[in-house]
Amino acid sequence: QKEVEQDPGPLSVPEGAIVSLNCTYSNSAFQYFMWYRQYSRKGPELLMYTYSSGNKEDGRFTAQVDKSSKYISLFIRDSQPSDSATYLCAMRGTSGTYKYIFGTGTRLKVLA
Amino acid sequence: GAGVSQSPSNKVTEKGKDVELRCDPISGHTALYWYRQSLGQGLEFLIYFQGNSAPDKSGLPSDRFSAERTGGSVSTLTIQRTQQEDSAVYLCASSQRYRDSKNIQYFGAGTRLSVL
Asked: Does the pLDDT of residue A17 top 90, yes or no?
């Protein structure tokens, strides 16, 4: 079993839809949770960064962490064709650790 | 300011040849990572450099892979005697260690390696 599981998709939604992307993990030591967006033939770019459980909102993006269920989500409101990309979750342990564990990424297509 | 720069962006080589991939991190970032990204796979950690400390090489898949970082800045990933299974995108990331250890990684665009 992988430490981090993420559905690879592809996920196709119409423009304006609410998108929900999810990752589950097995290591209860993870404390820091990130979402990266990766456009085709580009490097991943950081979208959201959260520590421990709770919600964080930034514009159309909301990140949720439920440590009791070992489950994290990224919601995209009013999705746009420009949101079409691969979304990778990443996580790491305590402040002394440097190694990220990445999900395989979910490919999202927002149809105009 | 400038982001993480990787070169070349694409590399096509023949099986058995050696290749060198270069990464120029963000100025002032002390930590540097190399990852491999294959189709349908997540980012596979290869190696980590932090300042003058000994690198964490635990992710290197075989002794054909090596990396160095000169002067705490530019890094080179070398793959000797390339095999077809080495074909992948090689990503470099850098981060600046803060006291609160936010340690956000910033990625380059990657080098797409094709071994024929």
From this structure: yes
